[in-house]
């Protein structure tokens, strides 16, 4: 197995948030893990992030997390960097999973704060403690997702952490609304001559064009049509923002539909199943289950997207 280089501040493009495939009865599906990795690579992603919140990481045992990580890294075989989500209430668990993942060939780890930290000092203290625990050889992506964690990470705290810990090389921006925060991260950092880190954005890619215009380097999110995310980021890299937004707009109805809280993961997995990436759309219990109306609605949206893509191809 070939190991990809470790992720650093230059990371850009699409680091797809991978789903975690299960069988219909809820067992980890390693065969579909292989096909899903192949699907993502075929769509041109620059990297992958596994065991994220939409990867159902909290529903996996520690043994399952390592088995899935090992299988993904074997299948990727160094072709793109793989970042492993290690967020957990226990610092010891974070350390074990992070160091085990790096030993298997991961390019870095992603870390969200434990829930309900209230002050800047508490947020800084948590991240600082983990950074010291993992050491300078483990690249860290800070995940800023207050809608899920209940933790607000201020611009000042991000800057302080970047200054203190060179292993913090990436920021996953998912605050909502967060466009102004993204601008502040970039402009204040530049004005102070601070080390520039990679900023990749989440929230399903729903605001990707605006975030790219405000200084994001790419996306770290999941969408069942990752080729759109790749195309949009590539067009921005080529200096063609209008073409990027035109491409984005074609997929927007389906992207918006998949973004729904509660049911979004089930919709994403069903679309991935229909596209041949995984064998089952099962979400591990407890989790959402689509009914007949949900599936018919998804069929209609996919059909409309495919029709628009066909029209664009023929024009």
UniProtKB/TrEMBL annotation:
Record's signal peptide: none
Keyword Transport annotated: no
Pfam family name, one: DHDPS
EC number per UniProt: 4.3.3.7
InterPro entries for this protein: Aldolase_TIM, DapA-like
Gene Ontology MF term list: 4-hydroxy-tetrahydrodipicolinate synthase activity
Domain of life, source organism: Bacteria
Alphabetically ordered keywords of this record: Lyase
Assigned protein family: Belongs to the DapA family.
Protein name: 4-hydroxy-tetrahydrodipicolinate synthase
Organism lineage string: Bacteria, Pseudomonadati, Pseudomonadota, Betaproteobacteria, Burkholderiales
């Amino acid at each position: 197995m070939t190991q990809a280089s470790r992720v650093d501040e230059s990371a850009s493009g699409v680091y797809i948030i991978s789903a975690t495939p299960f069988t219909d009865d809820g067992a980890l599906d390693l065969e579909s893990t292989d096909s899903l990795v192949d699907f993502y690579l075929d769509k041109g992603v620059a990297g992958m992030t596994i065991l994220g919140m939409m990867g159902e990481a909290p529903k996996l045992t520690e043994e399952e997390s390592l088995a899935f990580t090992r299988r993904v890294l074997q299948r990727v075989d160094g072709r793109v960097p793989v970042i492993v989500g290690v967020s957990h209430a226990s610092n010891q668990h974070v350390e074990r999973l992070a160091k085990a993942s790096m030993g298997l060939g991961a390019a870095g780890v992603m870390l969200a704060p434990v829930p309900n930290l209230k002050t800047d000092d508490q947020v800084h203290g948590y991240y600082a403690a983990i950074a010291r625990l993992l050491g300078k050889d483990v690249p860290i992506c800070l995940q800023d997702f207050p809608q899920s964690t209940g933790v607000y990470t201020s611009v000042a705290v991000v800057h302080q952490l970047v200054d203190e810990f060179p292993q913090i090389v990436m920021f996953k921006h998912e605050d909502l609304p967060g466009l102004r925060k993204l601008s502040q991260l970039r402009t204040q950092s530049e004005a102070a001559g601070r080390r520039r880190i990679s900023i990749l954005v989440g929230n399903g890619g729903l605001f990707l064009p605006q975030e790219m215009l405000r200084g994001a380097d790419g996306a770290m999110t999941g969408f069942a049509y990752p080729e759109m995310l790749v195309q949009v980021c590539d067009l921005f890299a080529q200096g063609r923002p209008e073409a990027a937004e035109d491409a984005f707009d074609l997929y927007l109805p389906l992207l918006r539909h998949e973004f729904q809280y509660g049911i979004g993961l089930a919709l994403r997995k069903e679309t991935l199943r229909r596209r041949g990436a995984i064998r089952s759309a099962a979400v591990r219990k407890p989790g959402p289950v689509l009914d007949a109306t949900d599936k018919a609605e998804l069929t209609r949206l996919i059909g409309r997207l495919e029709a628009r893509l066909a029209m664009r191809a023929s024009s």
